[in-house]
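cache lookup: miss for this entity combination. No prior model stored, computing from scratch. Input as submitted by user K.M.:
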Amino acid sequence: MFPDLTVLEQQLFNALSLGSVYALFALGFTLVFGVLGVVNLSHGAVFMVGAYAALQAVTKLHLPLAGALAVAFLASGLLGLLIDVLVLRPLRARNAPHLIPMIATIGLAIALNSLAQGIFGAENLRFPAEVLPQETLHVAGLHVTVLELGIIALSFGLMAVLLVVLRGTQLGRALRAIAESPKAAALLGINVGGLFMLTSFFAAGLGGVAGVLIGLYSNALFPLMGQPILHKGIAVIILGGMGDIRGAMLAGLFLGFAEVLSVAYIGSTMRDAVAFGLLFAVLLLRPKGLFGTVNERKV
Amino acid sequence: MSLLQLQSVSRHFGGLKVLQDVSFDVPAGGIFGLIGPNGAGKTTVVNLVTGLLPPTSGDIRFNGESVVGRKPHQITARGIARTFQNIRVFKEMTLLENVIVGMHGRLGYGPVGWLLRLPSFGAAERAARERARELLSWMKLDHKADDIADKLSYGEQRKLELARALATEPRLLLLDEPVAGMNSVEKTELMAEIRNIRARGYTVFMIEHDMRFVMGLCDHIAVLNFGRIIAQGGPDEVRKDPQVIEAYLGRDDDEVAA
Amino acid sequence: MMESFDSFWAVYSNLVLTLGTNSLLALSIYLTLSCGMLAMANAAFMGIGAYAASLLTMNAGAPFPVALAGGMAAPAVVALLMGGPTLRLSGVYLAMATLAFGEVVRIFVLNTESWTGGALGLNGIPPNTQWWHVALALALACAVLALMRRSKVGRAFEAIKLDDTAAGLMGIDVNAHKMLAFVMGAMLAGLAGALNAHLTFFIGPNEYGFDRGVEILTMTILGGINGLMGPISGAVILTLLPELLRSLADFRNVVNGLILVLIVLFLPRGLWDPARVRALLGRGRG
């Protein structure tokens, strides 16, 4: 019969927090694709680095959670910046066909994941319990953990900031111009190279924060934690229409809901299949994604 | 006899009406020109004829049969070949290889032939190479047959495209802005070349906006403006048509001088 | 002398045979790449071939050649079915979609336990693969691919890779050729999977996912796609490298990953680049 409504509502918060982190991850991924034109498959590794950096900040530097999040943002951001300067920029200078940078980022992901494994070992690590907010609130008759609320608030907050910047500022206009055509943007006097670096930094930073949030949500950190998220991120951005920011966010939320609800009502084994099953169905029926129009980038 | 007929062809992109009710006939054995200012929709006509886009409405008939809904390679098999406005030779192949690709549809062997290297395979490949060299020497490019296409000059790449298009053994040769970017010496050469092609029995359909070139070469002309045909006929008729003059005077003056 | 060969073989036979199957895998991606498609589904096709062949051997008692044939036919059928909508995509979208497909297969296997053994995999596959099976398969694959390259089909692939619109207008049926490359690639990958399964006694769903796909791609890119020797040399190097780097343990993959990045940055055409070899030997193109 119909499931208990309160169970459904509980699951809703679950779904919302998972979905908002997926959306945050997908945002960084889409940002790089939209502005730099690169499918950056090291985004999963960067995500993982953020989580581990936060863990180190908490255990070694004894920072509170907020500080750890900032550390994660900076660490991942810097890594993203390095990747752009050392690897992506030389490839741009060479006018390499777009699959080549993608392959390079695959190599980086492998190297980073293995490095983490070599340094930290393959076992699951956890954030120490003291750091996690333990309280539960009662909102409208539901039990909601502060942790979940925090995840939702932070994710949506960051996404809102990003949207405001993209739509309402000079910087955002410049980024959208570059996404349309880097050469035209350069001719307009936009500092394309500098903005590429900024985008790489910020997108990676967002990925790192997402990593911390997932690490808190699932209470597990392991070297390959970025991979399943990366695969889902790929599904999300295709579902949302590649390069489409709003599409990425909506699709990320949608996936979070689909996953949690399918676990609740079908069973957890098919959970991962949801993302890819959806992806396949969408690709067959609407190759342009659910929301976006796939625009070929003009050179 | 009409080799190619467009009958009330329209093409819309969303709300944008790129072509409206376009009709004209291309007679066999002649040189036909479709002219019009930039943005009039000429390239769209070529894309429709070669099957890259479907018309929103109307019919396109080649050799008496409709080609609407056919895929590009099927249309090429029926006898329409094309060159491109922004040259699209296969840059990493040699000239010879470029031309031989054009013969793809005419090489009559199948997987058994190339797997077992049957005599029919060897004969077909040899014949293809000879024919390719013939075409290249017609275009005066045979001394560079084994060079990589990327290394050719702009004018030479255009000639290579012509050779490659001719390799498909077309009845109708579609030239998309064939003299774009050429100097007057090259244009005169190309004019002679196209007459040569016509003499060998091919029908030529070109789209251009260089009036002098078109007036000097074409037997029949149609004029496209804002997606509609505003005039059709011989060069003299068209040149004097008031609508044509108005369409062009509103743009570049020197294009009208002829 | 024979004794030392025997002891060498006793220790290294698996490695040598794996060189062979990895070469087949690299050739399978080379095939689709030579037609301009980056299709990352070959690891999944390898898995389908491995499972199909193993189930034929174990459950139906099929003789080895039949199992191998099944290992090639099953992925071919899947490729035919999914090729239509998938190959409409191009470039990055195709790569992503085929990557996703690999995951779908993996999850499918995980959830059909009664049939495929699920997460526990299939155990006890008879070790039917002999060295000459692998050698024969590789030789035949190379022969077919070499013959194809120098025919109208090979030229069509190259034309499609360079400019698929122009290729279509030159009379080439682009969709049919892409499908051909895709299906043939699937068959090669399936064959490699079938041979591999009967070499390692055990197969599991995690062996045919994203990581395997990346490994195969790396081998091909490393070696270069300018000829058949490229993917094969890439396969040889990346199969032997982990053996040589054993002492590095976990950090072994760090080297693997960095090698990939370095190759992309500094040797864009891969190790086996006929043009560079010619230049080194002082012979330019005439």
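stored under new cache key. Chain C has one domain: 9-209.
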